[in-house]
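User: Hello, can you help with two protein structures?

Assistant: Certainly.
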Amino acid sequence: MTSEADRIRVDVWLWRARFAKTRAVATDLISAGGVRLMRDGQTRRLEKSSATVIAGDVLVFSQPNGLRTVEVLALGARRGPPAEARTLYRDLGAHLHVEPDPLA
């Protein structure tokens, strides 16, 4: 079992990792059903921004250009510069949405 110090709200983590410009944007993304959490072989759609993440979790969420899959490596203590934010996750790949070429 992990302690409270080993957990963080998913909206705060998305903001600290710079996937959301504000916590409100992160909350809207979660409330719209745009975030999935994979933990211990189970996948679930997050419905509340108060859901917590721990190191080792995998998040799949939508971005303007498609889906993003990241593994949570660290929780972070603050919203730092982009270089610091990149240390919080490992990118497992972006599933880009490609618009069909109307000329093809």
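That covers the first. Now for the second protein you mentioned:
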Amino acid sequence: QIMIPAVDEEQQKHIEAVKDLILSEVNVKELQFVEGQGILVKKVKCNFRTMGKKFGKLMKAIAAEMSALDQDEISQLETEGSITLDIEGEQVVVDLSDVEIVSEDIPGWLVSNEGNLTVALDVEITEELRQEGMARELINRIQNIRKDSGFEITDRIIVTLAPNENTDKAVESFGEYIASQVLADKIIISDNDGQEVDFDNFLLNIKVEKV
């Protein structure tokens, strides 16, 4: 899952226009927009090299003010592109390009920023997601065996998988989906003399027969 706190309606509209492409490219099931910035804790980092030239002796005081901005003020800076500060009696305008806005990681999420766009990626793998991933691996391996065996695209098959706790659970939860993708009338869990297939951390015998 990807979570995005859109800074305004225009940004959300642009993202929604390519939502399906994003999900496909990064292999994520859901993209969710969230209201406001409440889920994230953001901080402002000043670019001392460029801001020092721009603000001179006021730089130190500006940096202190910028580091003390609250979440609403940071959101305002992102949305409006600048923020005005009262520094030693002077009105100082700090542009978004003068600073870097970074987000602290949320437990279980990976957070990244680019300009005024923030993306949080759920990196926790649930048991269901693990089984679904294994189901997709099985589909890939079975399709390769179909191809190597010279079967026609429309040929129906029977698949026999050697017993293995990793794949057994995937078949139990996603058996119908696997069967529909590989055109299998049956998926049988049983010892067999089929092809030995290498998964990341185990080997599995898979036998594919034409009906």
